[in-house]
Write a structure and sequence with these properties.
It is a single chain. By secondary structure, the protein is α/β, with parallel strands linked by helices. It folds into 5 domains: 69-164, Death Domain, Fas (Orthogonal Bundle); 171-382, Rossmann fold (3-Layer(aba) Sandwich); 384-438; 442-545, Arc Repressor Mutant, subunit A; 548-615 and 628-679. The strands form 5 sheets. Strands 4-3-9-5-8-7-6 form a 7-stranded mixed sheet, sandwiched between helices. Strands 10-12-11 form a 3-stranded antiparallel sheet. Helix 1 (3-32) packs across helix 3 (55-64) and helix 7 runs antiparallel to helix 8 (119-130). Bound molecules: adenosine-5'-triphosphate. Adenosine-5'-triphosphate (ATP) is lined by residues 191, 193, 207-209, 211, 248, 250-256, 334, 364, 392, 423-424, 427, 510. Keywords: Cytoplasm, Immunity, Innate immunity.
Length: 680
């Protein structure tokens, strides 16, 4: 399947969502319109739209949005001329109603005025009462209708006037737009999940999974789910929101959303894909990384520096003129990565500059804290649901032209399930699985690979070498994970975070996200690990780096038996399943695979504590608290050594020596696992 086919198929799959959106829009429009006749018109449209029409949407849209100021200005400054030149001919009126600029009711009113008064009066009514309220596209549709009704000279005069108001309009704007469009089309066509490995890339259109966003609907934090088509839809008022924010966890897909918007705009036309006011309604899209504004005194300077080639001839003031005159969307990705001392970006957010332009910012959570009030629409990107996970791996396999089955079965694997809801992790899992299916045989190997990628990504982003990331950022992080795990939590509290000096940079690595809990009395800042399994893996990294004595001491204090305590009539309920330790122990065994003596010592402790050598594992029935151990606990050792690719001889000898009678051990023929255990 070609990229274009796949896009189309993708569009078709979103058609039903779009139909729902259209319905919402029409419903909102219904609430907003004023006259009975308009309500009647919209109600007909609503019925029609449920039969999957797209045309009424155009009309509803024009009821909802205002005309651009420069168009209004142009109509006003030419009013005399227009009154004397325009003929409200049948053809003109037909063209205007065909394109939805006027409704049947408008038509009747205009004709009445013309009959009762004069044509000039009707034209005046049209120019002052009707046209300016018929949406951002009405002006151009009006020019088109004029040209098609033998009044081209009037259309030309209005166009000329527009370019006089903004001399840059004519040539400069067109040139700039096509330069940016072709740049985005080329530059943003692919995704590079590992930025330091440019040879690994995926075609954006092929693999992109349409995202759902949660829109905050009020200050109390109520939310509703919207699709990407709804990003620019007015929410509380009829106005297009001017300051929009998308927040989400690391790797959740914020940058990819920005990239897709700019890339789609580069494609020039949405066809019928976009259900509502979409990215194509903007004359210009300026797509930046937050860091692009550092040391730039204005947006125009940032455009010259970061979006245009150095041999492109345009002055900053020409750029400023175009930005001022046009309907511009400014996309700024990754506020969290470059927010300190970013004065121009701050002014942009606060509306101190370019207040009437649309600004879309993305950030990890809680970096915009005291700036949140500037945003009229706030969205969060959530992790993939089941359907999106499936779509992700299917699109990946289709793009690579390989069998999707191994990827689909990967989604079922218990040990990595929690990783799969994050698009970055899922992409890495797909890449790893494709590269080497052996990697999946141990969890430690898989997490080690992902950890390595995250480390490389952090090194690139923070401009450090990997050894520095390990030493100054990851080691403290392992310690934090260890502490959090000890408290059975997945968070780092603010007071603990203050114990290390570069905590913000530790957060940048991508394992922790800011979390601010605000109660009426006080604000609490904490930092949440993105996944519980990462806490376990990082904890194991910490323990693996301890000296032997400390490690054995930690191990000695673990529980090795399942435990259920129930005392009738008393509210005491202790519940412990041995698997709760097992994740960390498993990673620890995997990480110390090469350290034969360490492994043997750890295994000996597990053998002892889980009564591995004894034949029977009775519940300790004499215990008044009804404490019992199950097979789950006594077989723990076997599950731990499954994390090893190769069982060292020294460890194999200990296990053979201390095996219980019902376990048979035999040398395996397999080169990789020269050790086999069977239980009966
Ligand atoms: N909608 C999507 N469809 C397919 N793949 C996606 C999607 N979103 C994200 N990905 C994959 O996840 C990777 C990471 O996504 P992205 O860089 O957008 O995350 P992010 O939220 O900006 O993360 P960070 O906060 O770390 O910068 C992408 O490189 C891509 O491989």
């Amino acid at each position: 399947m070609t990229g274009a086919q796949s896009t189309r198929r993708h569009m078709m799959s979103t058609a039903s969502k779009n139909a729902a959106n259209q319905h919402n829009i029409l419903e909102r429009s219904f609430a907003d319109v004023t006259t009975d006749a308009e309500k009647e018109l919209l109600s007909t449209e609503l019925n029609y739209s449920t039969r999957a029409s797209e045309k009424p949407l155009e009309q509803a849209k024009s009821v909802e949005f205002k005309m651009e100021d420069r168009h209004k200005e142009c109509l006003k400054s030419n009013r005399d001329y227009l009154l004397s030149e325009i003929s409200l001919s049948a053809v003109l009126l037909a063209k205007l109603s065909e394109s939805g600029v006027i409704t049947d009711e408008h038509l009747q009113k205009l004709q009445n005025t013309e009959r009762k008064d004069t044509t000039k009066a009707a034209v005046l009514e049209f120019l002052s009462e009707v046209l300016p309220k018929r949406g951002p596209e009405a002006f151009n549709l009006f020019l088109k209708a004029l040209s098609e009704s033998e009044q081209r000279h009037v259309a030309e005069r209005l166009k000329q006037c527009l370019s006089d108001v903004c001399p840059e309009d004519a040539g400069t704007f067109e040139r700039l737009r096509s330069e940016l469009q072709s740049y985005y089309k080329r530059k943003l066509a692919s995704i590079c999940p590992m930025p330091w490995l440019q040879s690994i890339y995926l075609n954006l259109t092929d693999v992109f999974v349409e995202r759902q966003l949660k829109l905050k609907t009020n200050y109390k934090g109520d939310e509703r789910i919207v699709t990407m088509d709804d990003i620019f839809t007015p929410q509380q008022t009829r106005e297009i929101p001017r300051r929009l924010l998308i927040e989400g966890n690391p790797g959740i897909g914020k940058s990819t959303i920005c990239q897709t918007l700019a890339h789609e705009w580069g494609e020039q036309s949405c066809g019928r894909h976009c259900g509502t006011l979409c990215v194509h309604s903007f004359d210009l899209v300026l797509y930046f990384h937050a860091g692009d504004f550092i040391d730039e005194e204005s947006v125009a300077h940032a455009v010259r520096e970061h979006l245009l080639p150095s041999d492109y001839s345009i002055t900053t003031s020409e750029l400023q003129g175009v930005i001022k005159a046009k309907n511009v969307l400014i996309i700024v990705d990754a506020f969290d990565e470059a927010n300190a001392g970013n004065r121009t970006l701050d002014r942009l957010i606060e509306g101190d500059i370019l207040r009437h332009k649309t600004l879309l910012i993305t950030s990890r959570f809680n970096f915009l804290e005291n700036k949140l009030r500037h945003f009229e629409s706030r969205f969060t990107v959530e992790g993939y649901d089941e359907e999106e996970r499936l779509q992700h791996v299917e699109r990946y396999a289709e793009h690579k032209r390989i069998d999707p089955k191994p990827f689909i079965s990967m989604l079922e694997e218990e040990s990595i399930r929690d990783l799969c809801s994050n698009p970055l992790n899922l992409t890495l899992l797909c890449l790893l699985r494709e590269e080497d299916t052996q990697l999946m045989t141990t969890r430690t190997a898989l997490y080690t690979s992902i950890h390595r990628i995250i480390k490389q990504k952090a090194a690139k982003r923070l401009k450090l070498i990997e050894a520095e990331v390990e030493e100054s950022l990851l080691r403290p992080l392992y310690q934090f994970a260890f502490e959090a795990h000890r408290k059975n939590e997945t968070v780092v509290r603010e007071k603990d975070s203050k114990k290390v000096k570069n905590f913000q940079r530790i957060c940048q690595v991508g394992y922790l996200t800011n979390e601010v809990i605000i109660s009426r009395l006080q604000k609490e800042v904490r930092f949440q690990f993105t996944h519980k399994t990462f806490v376990e893996f990082l904890t194991a990294k910490h323990i693996a780096e301890m000296d032997r004595e400390e490690r054995m001491n930690w191990m000695q204090h673990l529980r090795y038996a399942n435990c259920y305590i129930r005392i009738k009539g008393l509210a005491i309920d202790d519940y412990f399943k041995v698997e709760q330790n097992e994740a960390i122990l498993g990673f620890l065994f995997g990480l110390l695979e090469e350290e034969s003596a360490e492994l043997t010592q750890m295994a000996s402790l597990v053998i002892k504590e889980t009564h591995f050598s004894s034949e029977h594992h009775h519940p300790i029935s004499s215990d008044p608290l009804s404490l019992y151990s199950r097979c789950g606990a006594s077989h723990q050792l076997l599950r731990l050594i499954a994390e090893l690719n190769v069982v060292p001889q020294e460890l194999a000898d200990v296990i053979c020596e201390r095996r219980p009678p019902f376990i048979n051990i035999h040398p395996s023929n397999s080169h990789e696992r020269p050790f086999g255990i069977f239980t009966r």
